[in-house]
Structure formats: C-alpha cells, structure tokens
Amino acid sequence: MRQRGRHAAPRRSGQKARQAVALAFTAGAVLAASQETAVADILHGTPLTGQVNTDQEGQQNLDCGNSARLVRLNVAKSTNRETVCVDTDGHTHRRSGHPGGPQALGGTTLGPQTNTAQVGEQNLDCGNSADLVTVNVLGTINEQTTCAAVERDHAHERAGSTGRAQALGGTSLGQQVNTAQSGKQNLYCGNSSDTLTVNVFGTIRKYTRCVALDDTPRHEPGPEHRGRALADAGQVIGIGQNTAQNGRQNQTCGSQGAGIDLPLGETKRDTHCTVHDASASAR
Fold it and tell me: How many CB atoms sit inside 10 A of residue 63's CB?
C-alpha cells in the first residue's frame, strides 16, 4: 500500500503554480484514457448516501468531488469517477442565506455526515471521502478530483465585511466531518475519514489536485474583515473530524484519518495542494 500527500509551500512561485494548474487539467485526461470504464458499484443508485450540508459566501469557493456513502461495493469490475471543478472567470459567486455568515448545520442521519461552510475567496474543499464501508474485490476503483480557482481579472475582487463561517455537526450514526474556512486560499483536500476499507486482490487509486491561484499583482481596495471560522462536533458514533481554517493559505491535505484499511491489494493515494497569491505581495 502506498500513501502520499504533498503540501505545497505557501509562497510557491507563480510559475510553479501555473504549472500545477496545467498539470491538474491534463491529469484527468491521462487517467481516463488509461482505464476501461464500467459501472461496477453494485449499490449505485440506491439511497445510501449520507447527509451533506454546504453553505458558502464569497467567490471562487469550491466544494466538490467529495464522497459520503454508507456502503460502496465493487466486484471484479473497473469503476472510474472523475470530477473537475474549475473557476477561471469568477462565475462561482454565492451569498449565504444566513445574515451572520454561512452556516452548515447538521441534522440527524443514520450514516456519514459532512458539514462545510466557506466565506471569502478561493477556499477549496475537494476530493475528501467519508465513506462508512468500502469493499473492493478483484476490481479497480479510480477516483480523481481536480479543483482549480484561478483569478486573473482584478474586477472580480471585492473587499468588505462578511460574517463568520460555521460548520456545526448534528447527530450521526457514522463518521462526521465538519469543515469551516474563513479567508482566502485555504485548502482542505484529499483527506480520508473513511471508517473501513477492504481491498481484496484489487486496486484502489485516489488522486486529488487542488490549486488556488491569484495572478493579479495589485493592491486590493481595502482591508477585509471576516469572522473567524468555527467547526464544532455534534453527537457522533464513529470518526469525527473538525477543521477550522482562518486567514490565508492554510492547508490540510492528504490526511489518512483514523479509519481501518485491510490492504490485501494495492491502494494508492496521491494529493497535491498548491497556492499562490500575487496580490498579497502588492500590498
């Protein structure tokens, strides 16, 4: 079994960041071309997904390619899941319905629960898994998630006051993941909160690439005042993961969590996180 997580330095050069963007876009095509696609999840389509709650405030905040299933069963087949979330023109701009800022509030569920609240810009929550049970027998599971937020037009920049980000857990019979991000270019990608993974003479590959790039060397129009992020657990029977990120360029990437792996086959996890903010150097 091979597990690898890469954490990019917070101040990587703009050239390296742009190379990471290009790599993220091409990696999906390589994976798709190298594997035969077949629907192999026997339980696909059944209501076995846990509870997922997301609330966002700001622009270019991405939350995608995450998984929270009760059971994932793959037998003697090849399953490919590729998710690409890209914002290069500022089209992802959301406002929370809560006056105090985004709130992701968990309810009651028999299974996994994920609550994600984001406020600010280019905060990424991608490629994370919180599956209760995964069984792969004589098969192949390929999962690839690419998230890229790229800013090159200063017209998209908006400074001002916003509320706090709150991810508050509810009650879950299964793992619970609460993630709150407040600020800019905070990454939470490629983390595992899976409870049990059984891989019998098969292959599991999980690739996650997250890139946040602000390539506009400018002085922003004014200071930003955002409330602090809060991630708080509820009542949970199982693995609990609570992450609050405040400020700029905080990274939590490639964590394997406390789940149980029975690696009777090959398991590969590869996570790359890259951030670059040219606007910060212009202040």
Answer: 25
CA distances from residue 7 to 85, 169, 187, 215, 270 in whole angstroms, order as listed: 20, 27, 10, 20, 11
Integer Cα distance of 224 and 272 in angstroms: 28
Q: How far apart are CA 220 and CA 204, in angstroms?
A: 44
Here the tokens at position 81 are: 């899941």
H-only helix segments in the chain: 14-34
127: left (phi over 0), alpha (psi -120 to 50) or beta: left
10 Å Cβ neighbour count for 151?
Answer: 25
Residue 135: pLDDT above 90?
yes
Which segment of 4-13, 108-117, 257-266 scores lowest on mean pLDDT?
A: 4-13
DSSP summary character for residue 24: H
pLDDT attached to residue 134: 95
Reported pTM: 0.85
pLDDT > 70? residue 157: no
Using an 8 Å Cβ cutoff, are 276 and 20 in contact? no
Please provide residue 16's backbone torsions phi and psi, each rounded to the nearest 5 degrees.
Answer: -65, -35
Q: Are 177 and 109 in contact (CB under 8 A)?
A: no
Return d(Cα 222, Cα 36) in angstroms, integer. Answer: 51
Can you tell me the distance from the alpha carbon of 48 to that of 41, in angstroms, rounded to the nearest whole number?
A: 12
237 three-class SS: coil
Composition of the chain by helix, strand, coil, percent to 5: 10, 55, 35
Give 265-281 pLDDT, tens digit per residue.
999 999 999 999 998 76
For 55-77, what is each residue's pLDDT tens digit?
Answer: 999 999 999 999 999 999 999 99
Kindly give the pairing relationship between strand 51-59 and strand 93-94.
Answer: antiparallel
